[in-house]
Amino acid sequence: MKRFLLLSLVFVAHISFVCAQILSGTVLDQNQKPIQNVNLILVNGSAETLGFTFSDVNGKFSIQMPTDTTSLKLIFRSLGYKSVSMKLGNFKSKQAVIMTSSAIQLKEVNVRGHKITQRGDTLNYLVSGFKQSQDRSIADVIAKMPGLEVKSSGQITFEGKPINKFYIEGMDLMGRKYSQASENLSADKVKSVQVYQNHQPIKSLGKAEFSDQAALNIRLTDDAKNAWTGVVEICGGNTLNGDAKVLYGSKLMAMLFNKKQQNISVYKCDNTGRDIAHEQNYLTKNDVDDQEESGLLKNISAIAPDLDRRRTTFNTTYLASTNHLFRTSHGNDFRIQLDYLWNKEEADLYRETSYNDLNGVLLSEDNDVSAINHSVKSDVTYEVNKDSIYVYNRFHGAWNFDKSYGETTLNGEVSRQNVRPRKHYFTEDFNMILPMSKGRSIDFGSQTTYSYLPGHLLTFEGYHELLTFHTLESHNHVSFRHKIKNFNLSYQAGFRFRSQRMHVSYNDIDSCEKFFQQDLYLQ
């Protein structure tokens, strides 16, 4: 009985196969070329799908047809081509079906990525996930990113520690004064901010010296690269008090970012109390302490109340700066920076002090102070940063023409003040690191600075005093580093010397003092 049923089933299937009809053909485009993966659908009069197939690499297809072919349709569909629909009765076996190409307009879609992603030691912050409508510079957005903080000086910290590098598309354009980029680069031009955790900026020390500081890398949008772009901002107004002082602020900025060179050039002026002069300050620590002489004289300043600086600062500031980085064919960096600053701040302080224990003695003091910071700074740096060698050679200097003057009136008695704490210096930095096998390396370093400070002040007797400094300082060393198991050992031999001469000219006094110091050391 079981054998009979089995044979019966096979027989029925055989009869069905014989009665079925196979329809075949070819799909071609308007150039008579075969189209692969065309979807062929067989539908009935109620649009129900009865079968489907796809064309092969030669555009050929075949599909099994039912016995009843009444009201059947063949539909050919493929992305990039117009659909073809025909009645089955109009189709001849082995017929070629021609499909014409057609552009398809996709609907608008919004693609959103994660605001923060991590790959290895690199954190990637998506700017669009943190940017708000009031944010203008990338520094405004960075301040909102978890773990990052932007201080009033412009310095950026990650998890409480200052960053050691600020890159733009992987290149160190700004050096140690990156706030000029972070506070002027539009947030709309930045795609993401990357944080390189435990970043060692010297590649040859990557495995030999651990760093607990992070670095930032700014990734730009496509429209901000490979072309000069510019920004022009002009604003104006006036104060609301009776003085009716005209207020203004403006910014002219030009930028270029590509794989071979980068440039940021800025001109700004402001008298609204904003501190734009800090954009020229150094924000990262140098491996060797700066040697320029600080001097004995400083500009006069007045005591300001503990309020927001913009509420108590009366300034007129002009700032111009250009920063250009060339990347050579060997991958080395040549950077030129030039800064100019003219900043005048005025202060007027009046106070009265009553001493109750002295029968109500009243002291009235009125201070009127004006201080001008006037400087030109230049910086030329050449850097070779490879796994096999590190060379850093930097020439930088500054010419400061500061001066300040004012009057102090104490109970009607006037005292005049006048100080010119001028300073000029020039420094040459050199550092070369040669890595060796097994984590060993040799380091050669040198820094030499000449400082000239022609100071001038007005003494309380009404005499003018000249106080001039000449300082020459140099530090040269060679060091060897190696590992013993889990310990890093370093040996350094060096030579320091400092030569200083101070000349004082005051009334009938004309004096000159000299100081010389030299040290040989081994540590």
Short structural description:
This protein is mainly β.
Structure description:
There is one protein chain. By secondary structure, this protein is mainly beta. It is built from four helices and 29 strands. The protein has a six-stranded antiparallel barrel with strand order 21-22-25-26-24-23. A five-stranded mixed beta sheet has the order 8-9-14-15-13, with no helix packed on it. It has a four-stranded antiparallel beta sheet with strand order 3-2-5-6, with no helix packed on it. It starts with a helix and ends with a strand.
Unreliable spans are 1-19
| Main sheet characteristics | 6 strands, antiparallel, barrel
Share of residues in strands: over 45%
Kindly state the percentage of residues in helix.
under 10%
Task: State the shape.
Answer: elongated
Alpha-carbon distance between the termini? 103 Å
The strand count comes to 29
The average pLDDT value, as a whole number, equals 86
What structural class results from the helix and strand content?
mainly beta
Strand order of the largest sheet: 21-22-25-26-24-23
Work out the helix count: 4
